Input
Amino acid sequence: MTSINPIIPGFAPDPSCIKVGDWYFLVNSTFHFFPGLPIYASQDLVSWTQIGNAINRPGALSLAKSRTKPVTQDNGCVLLAAGGLYAPTIRFHDGTFFVDVWSNNWSDPVYFKFDGIDPSIFFDDDGKVYIHGANNVGGSSAVTNFEVDINTGELLSPERVLWSGTGGLYPEGPHIYKKDGWYYLMISEGGTLEGHMVTIARSKGIWGPYEECPHNPILSARGTDEYIQHTGHCDAFQDGDGNWVGVCLGVRKDGEGRFVMGRETFLTRGNWDEDWPSFDPVKLDPTGLEPKQGYVSPTAAPNVEFLYIRDYDMTRYSILEGGALITLTPSATDLSHPEMSPTFIGRRQRLLKGESSATVKEGQDSWAGKHVKTGLACYKDEFRYARIYYDASISAVVFELNHFLQEKMKTQTHPVKIASTLSLKIEYTEQDYHLSFRSEQSSSGSWKTLGVVDTLDLTGSDYVGPVIGVFAVAEGPEARVDVLDFTVN
Output
């Protein structure tokens, strides 16, 4: 049987999930990509469809300052901390979704004052609404809480510390649940890498004091040889039969340290005895959660899965037939810019083993003298990407690997004079990417591999996963690039 985990493969960190009627709704982080906060729907917790994005209108908020910042940790490891949209929570209350879902008729964001990360929302029985998140208090991290007017964002109470966790690094990703008269505060600790774990505490009042679960951590892969590692940032809910289930992030990590797909969304069976919850270790085939009608890879409504970088200019893109024809207007901004938005449109890489491809149509006179570069890229952030493209200024196909932080750069050039079209392809496994091209002048129709990238070069201590897309860069007056049959697996 095909494994069902991860239920949302590829770039899908920080999941939050709820059940409303016969449907489950799930949301993930997106950081510096637009549209932000994808919403997925399912009726069986196994087969999912992306139905929209909560931040889907240019101008709703700006991602221009969502640059990726290298942060050196205590162990010397450099964490690539992406800015932007972090760790959303989805909840349903009095007929309204927060984050709203199912149509694309989202409201503009309601802002509230909070100098922290990972805010979550809790609707209490008495009608009060609380926001809790991770904050720095007196030089150390803790989970704080405050009452809020959900319609205006006005704070209705002081912000107070609830719990600092069990002593692990970075207590974050909090969610509050109310059960049998107790408030349960579930958080993640240990950082989002090897030490990641889920812990929990409870109190008779929302403001505490909170007592720790004697069995913490209630979910973690640290210190194990499990294939799925870094598990944490969990959200708990009950399925249609009343069973407890958890969604969490994790990575598929091979024996040499590769986890190129980044943080993905996994499903695991939970149990809540009289006092405390716990979760099974995360497996590719979780016990008791087998698909009823077979596993189906996530699907998407038309065009909702396309991603852009930061504050994209919608006038640069024309999309027909779901990507069968994409017309790009190049800009002078390249993929390495930390704040501006290059001309780039992509989709998440969903498969460990698969391929993506596109065909570039030669612009003839419109490219003359404009130094047009256009092609296919596997992009994570401004520090790391691999790409294969046509450089009109030198009439050549170029392969590049850029890992600016490690000063690891490779390039290879092959002269090609195209008359009408040039096809580009990226094939991938867990171990490597193969970047190839084929021109219409090739009599054999065979592909020529121009570069190979070890996935270790795109694996790292980071927040994001690979997004594969087509891009166009040019100097001078506007040019036009037509891309045919863009596909991503």
